Amino acid sequence: MMEPISVEAAREKARKAGLKPGRVKGTDGAIQFTKGRNNRIEIISWEEFSDVLQKRNLHVCESNGFLKIMKKG
Fold this sequence. Notes:
Blueprint: E1 3-5, H1 7-17, E2 20-24, E3 31-34, E4 41-43, H2 46-55, E5 58-63, E6 66-71
Antiparallel strand pairs: 1-5, 2-3, 2-4, 5-6
């Protein structure tokens, strides 16, 4: 089951998995975690990542070490 976690917890788990916050180029809100190897994804700051989560009513969920960005509610 996917459980919501804080951005701080997501940041730590992402770091351990070698992931960074990313955004699909040409969008302002399509965010995901990336290893930085995809040309269509640009790495963004955690602050920007957090802002997009808030603006789009999203949160990071985790299950067995797997991170997923989901709509709240």
